[in-house]
Structure formats: structure tokens, C-alpha cells
Amino acid sequence: MERLQKIISNSGYTSRRKAEELILEGRVLVNGVKANIGDKVDNNATILIDGVAINKNDGNYVYYLLNKPRGVISTSCDEKGRKTVVDLIDTDKRIYPIGRLDYDTTGVLLLTNDGNLTNLLLHPKNNVDKTYLAKIEGIMSITDLYKLKDGVKIDNYIAKPTRVKIKSINKKNNTTMVEVTVHEGHNHEIKDMFKVIGYDVIKLTRLSFAFLTVGKLKAGEYRLLSLKEVQKLYSIVK
Length: 238
Fold this sequence. Notes:
Elements: E1 2-3, H1 4-10, H2 16-24, E2 28-30, E3 33-34, E4 40-41, E5 47-49, E6 52-53, E7 63-68, E8 96-97, E9 106-112, H3 115-122, E10 130-137, H4 142-150, E11 152-154, E12 157-159, E13 163-170, E14 175-182, H5 189-196, E15 201-209, E16 212-213, E17 222-224, H6 227-236
Parallel strand pairs: 9-15
Antiparallel strand pairs: 1-4, 2-3, 2-5, 5-6, 7-9, 7-17, 8-9, 10-14, 10-15, 11-12, 13-14, 15-16
Helix pairs in contact: 1-2
């Protein structure tokens, strides 16, 4: 038996203090009954917050941040036998990437076996920032920068970044470094956005996913997320 607010906090849903606030506000049900501060529950109890069941972290959930290298598939398995991002993680858990990065795209990639968090982070309504640095062929004009900011049509939807910034221009090599932040992250979206306005992406790196960056991790290296980081991820999508 554990105190309810501790179980909620350990699930990664929110902090213990915030969990207590949710209980006081009457937003937490345990086995269909409104919870009270000080309640102790067992791990088999069904805990609902605002009508949604939490994933009780009994030690089975793991959360990794990988600095994805080039030449690795962002999936849990590959029918062609190519190396996947899961192959890079030393774990006995059945993990999978949260979203995908292209074969030749590098940078921040999260992997977990927590389906609830995965769905929340990927749902368009939660507006989770994903920031990329694109090296494009050609010198990007201010006119094209504003075209990108205003949104471009890709297939049957409008891709509109939340932020676009030219970081540097190399006239000698005829390239431009552009930082782009998006929320939804459709397949190949960054490359397709530049292609629509006439530029090819030579190199693409994801700098951050929400507040998470690779930090000092080298290509192919990874680390476990801390409980505070998991809690913060949950807090930004609630």
C-alpha cells in the first residue's frame, strides 16, 4: 500500500505537490470513488485523473534520450535487417521510439515503453516543440524565409513552423543554416517544407524535443531520463 499522491508522482504524471492539489480539487478517482488526501492504495487499484487512467510506474517503464546517429532506422525492428535505434539501447524492455527521425537525420530521439506518454507527446493538440537545424543548399532569401514562416502546402495540409531563423550563411560553400521549430512533425516534413520553396536539405539535426537536448551525448550515446524530466514531460502535455 502506498500513499496515492506518491503513486501519481511515481507514474511521471506530475509532482507529488501537484498530485495533492488534484486530489483536493476532486479530480482523482480510485476504483470509481473520489479520493482524499492521505488515502493509501495498492498497485492493482484503478486511478483516474480527469477521467483518464494513469500508467502506474511500478518499475516497468523506462525512458531514454538517444543522440541518434546517421544510418540508423527509427523503429523497433526492420524487415531488411538494418540497424535500428532500439539496437543501440542496452535494455531488456520492449521499447520503441517516440516519433521518428529519417535514416540520415541525427539528434534528439526519445524511446520508451510508456504508451500513454508517447500518445500525449505526439498528439497535435499538445503543441510539443521539436526544433531542427537544417543545412540547405543555396543562400536563403528573406522572401523565402517569410514564405516558410507563413506556411507552405505539402500534399493535402499546410506545414507552418512555429519559429524559423537563419543561423548562418556560407557564401563560399553556397549553404545556409536554418533553425526550424515545428509541433506536429509529419514524415519528412522539414525536408519537404524546404523543397516546396526550392531548397534541398543537405544535413538535418534535431536539436531538441520539448526541453530536452542531447547535451554532451555523442552520436549513438544515450542516457536514462530522470524522474523529474519524465514528470516535466507529463506536465507540459496536461
